[in-house]
Request: fold
Amino acid sequence: MDDQPLIEVRDVTKVYPLKSGDVTALDSISLSIQKGDFVAIMGPSGSGKSTLLNQLGCLDRPTSGDLLIAGRNTREMDDHELTGLRLNTIGYIFQKFNLIPLLSAYENVEYPYLMKHRQEDENGHISRLLSKVGIDAALAQHKPPELSGGQQQRVAIARALVNDPQILLCDEPTGNLDSITGGQIMKMIRTLNEQGRTVLMVTHDPTVAACARRNVIIKDGRIT
Amino acid sequence: MRGKDIIFRLAVRSIRLHFLRSTLAVLGIVIGVVAIATMGMMGANMTLSVTEQLSEMGNVLVVTESREGGGGGMSGPGGPSGGSDDDDFIPEEQFKDIERIASKYGTVYALYSESDTIEVGDEERRATIYGLDQDVIPEILTLASGAFPKSTSSVLIGPSLAGRLDLTLGSKIDIGDSDEGATTTVRVVGIIEERGMSMDLNTDSAIIGSEKLFTGIYGGEGEYRQVNIILDDINEAGNVSDEIEEQMNKKEEQVSVQDSSRMLENITETLGTMTTFVMAIAGISLLVAAVSIFNVMMMSVTERIREIGILRSIGTQKGEVRKMFIYESAILGGLGAVIGAVASLSIGWVVVLAMVGSTDYFFAPASLMYVPFGMAIGFVTCVMSGVYPAWSASNLDPIEALRAE
Reply:
């Protein structure tokens, strides 16, 4: 079982039907990612790297081909199961942080925890996680708009980790941050990978990609 | 439960964030609930008050000659009309029979009546003249002033007649048309209290004299217009009515018995229909409120597309997104219903006082039930208005939603 890849992309094609003609964002892509891998997906704008990440994050379905996550074919899953996968198995870190502005930093992290466990965190797991990413208790009470970009991304990382997912998907995680903060965030992601998490990261920044063990270059919807 | 709680918290925070918009939506529901509850309460109070007034005289059975047996031309309930047939009467022996059957249930009396011209000075009018047993008059009528008649030339008059013709105690009235023949002059000795419309006697515009006075003018001794039975217990109405009909209509249809409770039923039914109609009009305001809630919810969905995308991308099920918006509309509806209920109690009180004239029945269950009724309709309308926005929010494509700014 150990040699079975955690994520397997088989001949995945994604076509967006448009009035002006179909646009092929992914063209027969195949990719295998082992447990504990750290893969950077690189490519110019519009190359299809975000589309690929959306497929891997089960936010979208391929037009054709198969995507297997932990041995299960996502083609055979309904919306309910895919949502469950996003909650339990996949942690998503976005370029724009995507925190819920109505909730405090703590509640943003608490949200997926409550969705999964259906009970309050009585062991201080969330607080520990927040302090691990550098957000103290006082800061955790603030709403996202009151936090800096770096602080928001730290909260977003804590949120992605709260349900202890096997896979961490990062979409340009340092794209909205200055270089020093970006460096800190990348260090954090690398540590997470070293602790055994499988990380897939979309970036167009070669210095960021250098943190990964493996780089996948994508151009015009194909892996080169 | 906590999982639901955070969804609920999000709904509450969204409402708080858009306080003014939410307040206006709640106000719409409040107006709708107040309109429905107030109109309902007004109708109920009107019905209860009329029922009370009518049931005060609802213990009366009126026996007249049967339409089938008497050859038609019978006068309507409440008194004779000018065009009634002279053959249309209850003879003395039938009255005795009725008295024998019904006297144990209450007061039984027969009456003569006729509509005729009366003259007071130069003024001429038509009025109903009743002929009643002198001993019975004090039992069934209440004096506003004066005394009960003791002679054949003294009469009582109703307050409306007294008012219209400026009659006072001691005034003289000529009964009959002086152009057509002899008239009989009577003297007013008493004015009776207002009784309103009823089945047995309509005395407000009538002249009430003794039987002797009546038969002295019109003849027909022992030929009564109708027999009235004032029951001690209103619940006996059906029994007495059945008993009279059973015993007296055995061979042929001699008499017909009218039960005032049936009239009451008709009036109550009419008032009920009116109340429903007025409430339906009030319901239009709730419809307007529903549109406003729908608008608020749709705006909320549009403004929160990105948030919905985030929620979906981090593992929120469609059903939970739906729930969040349903919670939002339920909170608005709940608030509107509660505030509306409190407001309708105070506004309803004023409206009932103004329209019905009395708040005696305001706290009666039949009246107060319109408050929860209005609340329920307001709440359900509000939640229903949130269903489509909630549905459309939950069906948003997460990627599209995340792209929204």
Q: What stands out?
A: The mean pLDDT of chain A is 91.
